[in-house]
Specification:
With 353 residues, the chain is an alpha+beta fold. It contains 8 helices and 18 strands. The strands form 6 sheets. The chain has a 5-stranded antiparallel beta sheet with strand order 1-2-3-7-4, covered by helices on one side. A 5-stranded antiparallel beta sheet has the order 9-8-10-16-11. α1 crosses α8. The model has no long low-confidence stretch (mean pLDDT 93). One of its GO terms (cellular component) is cytosol. GO terms for molecular function: chorismate synthase activity; FMN binding.
Length: 353
């Protein structure tokens, strides 16, 4: 079961949704980086549940414990281990689901591959696993942010309601992380209406990275956009990724879609900051399609471990919309990919000397 990510910067997460703890081991960060535990905690707080009616009611403090690799606030160059304890799991909510496959979840495919029956909360397939990713991403930021690299995310669509403008500052104050102040209320009402009916709603999250230098990424098979897309697709619930103009490019002429240049640089950014799999120095821009949360309390038809048809209603605490919690995770995965690309570039330059 793959739980390791990266080449120069290797990240390994562990733990299950309803186990005693989650954690991550990060190997490859240089020594001497400033590791601010409060900075890590701020990122964890952005992702954690229980903040509003727009997300799961599960109450987790998500306090990060640094177990190794840091001394006096600086990285030692050795593996950094971070731990997040589960303190509000309610496995009893899943007793009636122990022998049935929840529609839209990984229960069926995990059973087919590993012979593992459905686990409380989804086990490793749970969105709870992303807490470890966010902690790791905060470590990656310790390498990138001193270089002037900044990360942003927001919700740009919910249930078909699409933002007409992007205001990252406003999105920090909105429970859905909605990008458009004029449409935030309508988006919120859409989510609450679905929740009231025992349903859920999907949406689109935008991710932007500013300040990444030109020259990161490795063609032909390790392109930066391929690495980013793979990292984002590894987030549960993400079913589509487009970079730059994405699918809109399919309807354009080359003269419309090419990013022309003058003596001052690029005149547009339809490529989303990546050309030939290598960063161009422009902002990296992407959008992630997020499916509706599969855990809903409406009656659904499914099968049990014996192959018999069953009808279930999923109880427990679940997000009516995944978007506000996907954003911080998407930023974290982008940070991990870029930190790895940075270290790969340093290794390449060292070899060429």
């Amino acid at each position: 079961m793959s739980s390791v990510f990266g080449k120069q910067l290797k990240v390994s997460t562990f733990g299950e949704s309803h186990g005693p703890a989650l954690g991550v081991l990060v190997d490859g960060l240089p020594a001497g980086l400033l590791i601010d535990q409060k900075r890590i905690q701020r990122e964890m707080d952005r992702r954690r549940p229980g903040g509003s009616a727009m997300v799961s009611a599960r109450k987790e403090a998500d306090q990060v414990e640094i177990l190794s690799g840091v001394s006096q606030g600086k990285s030692l160059g050795s593996p950094i281990a971070l731990l997040v304890r589960n303190k509000n799991a309610r496995s009893k909510d899943y007793r009636d689901l122990a022998e049935v496959f929840r529609p839209g979840h990984a229960d069926f495919t995990y059973f087919q591959k590993y012979g593992i029956p459905p686990q409380p909360g989804g086990g490793r397939a749970s969105g709870r696993e992303t807490a470890a990713r966010v902690a790791a991403g905060a470590l990656a930021r310790a390498l990138l942010e001193p270089m002037g690299i900044a990360f942003f995310s927001c919700t740009v669509a919910v249930g078909g309601i699409k933002a007409r403008k992007i205001d990252y500052e406003f999105s920090h104050t909105d429970p859905l992380h909605a990008a458009d102040p004029d449409l935030a209320r309508a988006m919120g009402e859409k989510v609450l209406a679905a929740r009231e009916k025992g349903d859920s709603v999907g949406g689109v999250v935008q991710v932007e990275v500013r300040g990444a230098p030109a020259g990161w990424g490795d063609p032909v098979f390790d392109k930066l956009d391929a690495a980013l897309a793979g990292a984002w697709f590894s987030i549960g619930g993400v079913k589509g990724v487009e970079i730059g103009s994405g699918f809109e490019a399919a309807a354009r002429l080359g003269s419309e879609n090419n990013d022309q240049m003058d003596e001052n640089g690029f005149l547009s950014n339809h490529a989303g900051g990546i050309l030939g799999g290598i960063s161009s120095g422009q902002s990296l821009l992407a959008r992630l399609a997020v499916k509706p949360t599969p855990s809903i309390s409406r009656p659904q038809s499914t099968r049990d471990l014996s192959g018999r048809q069953r009808e279930i209603e999923i109880k427990g605490r679940h997000d009516p919309c995944l978007c506000p919690r996907v954003g911080p995770v998407a930023e974290a995965m982008a940070a991990l990919v870029l930190a790895d690309a940075c270290l790969c570039q340093r290794a390449l330059q060292g070899e060429s000397r």
